[in-house]
């Protein structure tokens, strides 16, 4: 566990040395009281106790209490503030680490799992580091010191005490193995629950329209029931070891009293020593009971540290350390094959070359691999075989963040942030001026509707921009891409039927955006791509045909058939109308 913690907090762990030393000093200071008590009892029973002695002992106790309070508060504050800072850094590091991972990682792990790691595991880690650590240190240091002290009073009785402790600790450990096992189960169920809740909230529209709310509600209540059952099971299964530990810890005093009485009657221990020993055993027994809670929290820390370590151990997409800059923006696929899950290949031996500044249309039936080609260009995933080159450079040499500077994306589902419209557009280029932002909005034909909103550009969008229409959302995404002005553009043409006005505006905005760029457009309507420099027809992850509109029509192959098909469909609609 210490290894995991060290790995997570690294050299910053040294910052905890001072608070740990202060906590240990406080624990040592707490023994002063026991020592004064011991002296008082010794003098009392031997009839040498005087008023001066009592006054001196009281003063020593008072000073030690004040000093301890100062030391404890400083140690606790340092532990709390430094621990909290470490954990907030860790949280940022983890969020940043997630950003560097391939999208494949997010495919394999549910959003509930990722959220639970980022929130619950980190909170548990933080809680132990900032609050529990001080009390654990105090308990351990005091326990060791009191036990050592009892050896000085009477080693035989101290050995008897050790026997009780040696029986208690394995029982505690056994109980906590179970606590850990059920903790893991509860964590898995909690992440499942978080996933279900997220899906429930995000998909509310679909659930309502398909009248599925009750089905989903049932899934949620089943998971809650599983959590409840696991909690009950955990309580039942751990009840035996926990109770046994408690019995043994509480038995320490009577056991020592019993052995001590025999030793006293046999003349091996004086009455003063026996009383002092009893007092220390009382304290030791209280520490043993307190340790049960701390040990349980240590197990939680272990589980949280393990989960966090696993998240950090996932390797980001590799790239060359030295900065690779691109001067040209032609895109070449060379014998590219790809599989999302390393089992089913979804792209097979794809090869094409898109010239710099040209437009390539990707067409094909649903599931043929159009979006996958676009995802690979942006290096959201790495190819399984072959290579993709931009400007002659294999994109695996480029830092994924650096590569994305050269690429703008306008997808069907555009991600709008729960921020102002102004900041949503600005996300395209952080250092853009207000003038540039407004000019991008004008070019994207969204300025007119933005200024009509009561708060204009400062209108705050709800999560995902749900307060805007589909066309408006898309135009804001286009404005963002215009502002970014990246040389490569990935465009997923909207499948949604927009009204004529919206469609015309979006087309004008796109014309502006596409000028001079290397464009890949995932096209759903064939009439929009007739002027593309090349059309790639995908089917079942393979290139069926490739060429210009005229070439492919002449060939009378798949593309020709698709055009005919769409033409027929249009005629039916016109006839039907
Ligand atoms: N994240 C993913 N994980 C696993 N498989 C995926 C993933 N995304 C897509 N696939 C699979 O890869 C194949 C190609 O999908 P892709 O989305 O590229 O097709 P598409 O041509 O863009 O489809 P559409 O026109 O419906 O958007 C499909 O079989 C799909 O099921």
UniProtKB/TrEMBL annotation:
<keyword id="KW-0472">Membrane</keyword>
<dbReference type="Pfam" id="PF00005">
    <property type="entry name" value="ABC_tran"/>
</dbReference>
<feature type="transmembrane region" description="Helical">
    <location>
        <begin position="127"/>
        <end position="152"/>
    </location>
</feature>
<keyword id="KW-0067">ATP-binding</keyword>
<feature type="transmembrane region" description="Helical">
    <location>
        <begin position="158"/>
        <end position="179"/>
    </location>
</feature>
<keyword id="KW-0813">Transport</keyword>
<keyword id="KW-1133">Transmembrane helix</keyword>
<dbReference type="InterPro" id="IPR003593">
    <property type="entry name" value="AAA+_ATPase"/>
</dbReference>
<feature type="transmembrane region" description="Helical">
    <location>
        <begin position="271"/>
        <end position="291"/>
    </location>
</feature>
<feature type="transmembrane region" description="Helical">
    <location>
        <begin position="247"/>
        <end position="265"/>
    </location>
</feature>
<dbReference type="GO" id="GO:0015421">
    <property type="term" value="F:ABC-type oligopeptide transporter activity"/>
</dbReference>
<keyword id="KW-0547">Nucleotide-binding</keyword>
<dbReference type="GO" id="GO:0005524">
    <property type="term" value="F:ATP binding"/>
</dbReference>
<dbReference type="InterPro" id="IPR003439">
    <property type="entry name" value="ABC_transporter-like_ATP-bd"/>
</dbReference>
<dbReference type="GO" id="GO:0016887">
    <property type="term" value="F:ATP hydrolysis activity"/>
</dbReference>
<dbReference type="InterPro" id="IPR039421">
    <property type="entry name" value="Type_1_exporter"/>
</dbReference>
<keyword id="KW-0812">Transmembrane</keyword>
<protein>
    <submittedName>
        <fullName>ABC transporter ATP-binding protein/permease</fullName>
    </submittedName>
</protein>
<dbReference type="InterPro" id="IPR027417">
    <property type="entry name" value="P-loop_NTPase"/>
</dbReference>
<feature type="domain" description="ABC transmembrane type-1">
    <location>
        <begin position="20"/>
        <end position="300"/>
    </location>
</feature>
<dbReference type="Pfam" id="PF00664">
    <property type="entry name" value="ABC_membrane"/>
</dbReference>
<feature type="domain" description="ABC transporter">
    <location>
        <begin position="331"/>
        <end position="565"/>
    </location>
</feature>
<dbReference type="GO" id="GO:0005886">
    <property type="term" value="C:plasma membrane"/>
</dbReference>
<feature type="transmembrane region" description="Helical">
    <location>
        <begin position="16"/>
        <end position="37"/>
    </location>
</feature>
<dbReference type="InterPro" id="IPR011527">
    <property type="entry name" value="ABC1_TM_dom"/>
</dbReference>
<dbReference type="InterPro" id="IPR036640">
    <property type="entry name" value="ABC1_TM_sf"/>
</dbReference>
<feature type="transmembrane region" description="Helical">
    <location>
        <begin position="57"/>
        <end position="79"/>
    </location>
</feature>
<dbReference type="InterPro" id="IPR017871">
    <property type="entry name" value="ABC_transporter-like_CS"/>
</dbReference>
């Amino acid at each position: 566990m210490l290894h995991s913690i060290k790995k997570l907090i690294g050299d910053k762990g040294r910052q905890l040395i001072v608070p740990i030393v202060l906590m240990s000093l406080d624990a040592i200071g707490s023994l002063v009281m026991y020592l004064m008590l011991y002296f008082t009892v010794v003098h009392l029973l031997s009839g040498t106790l005087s008023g001066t002695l009592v006054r001196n002992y009281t003063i020593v106790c008072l000073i030690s209490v004040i000093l301890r309070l100062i030391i404890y508060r400083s140690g606790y504050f340092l532990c709390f503030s430094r621990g909290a800072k470490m954990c907030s850094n860790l949280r940022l590091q983890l969020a940043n680490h997630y950003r560097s991972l391939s999208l494949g990682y997010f495919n394999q792990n549910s959003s509930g799992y990722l959220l639970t790691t980022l929130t619950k595991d980190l909170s548990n880690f933080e809680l132990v580091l900032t609050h529990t650590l001080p009390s654990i240190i105090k308990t351990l240091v005091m326990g060791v010191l009191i036990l050592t002290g009892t050896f000085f009073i009477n080693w035989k009785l101290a050995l008897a005490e050790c026997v009780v402790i040696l029986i208690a600790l394995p029982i505690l450990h056994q109980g906590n193995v179970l606590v850990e096992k059920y903790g893991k189960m509860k964590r898995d169920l909690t992440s499942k629950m978080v996933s279900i809740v997220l899906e429930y909230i995000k998909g509310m529209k679909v659930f309502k329209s398909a009248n599925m709310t009750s089905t989903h509600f049932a899934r949620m209540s089943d998971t809650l029931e599983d959590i409840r059952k696991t909690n009950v099971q955990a309580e039942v299964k751990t009840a035996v070891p926990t109770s046994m530990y408690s019995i043994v810890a509480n038995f320490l005093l009577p056991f020592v009293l019993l052995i001590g009485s025999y030793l006293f009657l046999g003349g091996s221990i004086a009455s003063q020593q026996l009383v002092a020993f009893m007092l220390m055993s009382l304290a030791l027994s209280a520490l043993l009971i307190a340790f049960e809670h701390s040990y349980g929290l240590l197990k939680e820390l272990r589980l949280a540290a393990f989960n966090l370590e696993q998240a950090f151990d996932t390797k980001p997409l590799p790239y060359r350390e030295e900065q690779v800059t691109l001067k040209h923006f032609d895109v070449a696929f060379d014998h590219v094959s790809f599989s999302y899950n390393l089992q089913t290949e979804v792209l097979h031996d794809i090869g094409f070359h898109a010239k710099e500044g040209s437009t390539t249309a990707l067409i094909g039936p649903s599931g043929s691999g159009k979006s996958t080609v676009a995802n690979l260009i942006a290096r959201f995933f790495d190819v399984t075989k072959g290579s993709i080159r931009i400007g002659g450079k294999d994109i695996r040499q480029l830092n994924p963040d650096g590569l994305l500077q050269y690429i703008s994306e306008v997808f069907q589902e555009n991600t709008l942030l729960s921020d102002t419209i102004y900041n949503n557009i600005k996300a395209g280029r952080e250092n853009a001026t207000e003038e540039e932002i407004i000019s991008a909005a004008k070019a994207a034909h969204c300025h007119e509707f933005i200024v009509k909103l009561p708060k204009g550009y400062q209108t705050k969008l709800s999560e995902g921009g749900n307060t805007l229409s589909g066309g408006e959302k898309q135009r804001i995404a286009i404005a963002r891409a215009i502002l970014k002005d990246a040389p490569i553009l990935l465009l997923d043409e909207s499948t949604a039927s927009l009204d004529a006005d919206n469609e015309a505006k979006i087309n004008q905005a796109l014309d502006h955006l596409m000028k001079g760029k290397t464009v890949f457009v995932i096209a759903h309507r064939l009439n929009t791509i007739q002027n593309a420099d090349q059309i790639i027809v995908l089917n079942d992850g393979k290139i069926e045909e490739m060429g210009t509109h005229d070439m492919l029509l002449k060939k009378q192959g798949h593309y020709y058939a698709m055009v005919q098909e769409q033409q027929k469909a249009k005629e039916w609609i016109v006839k039907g109308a």
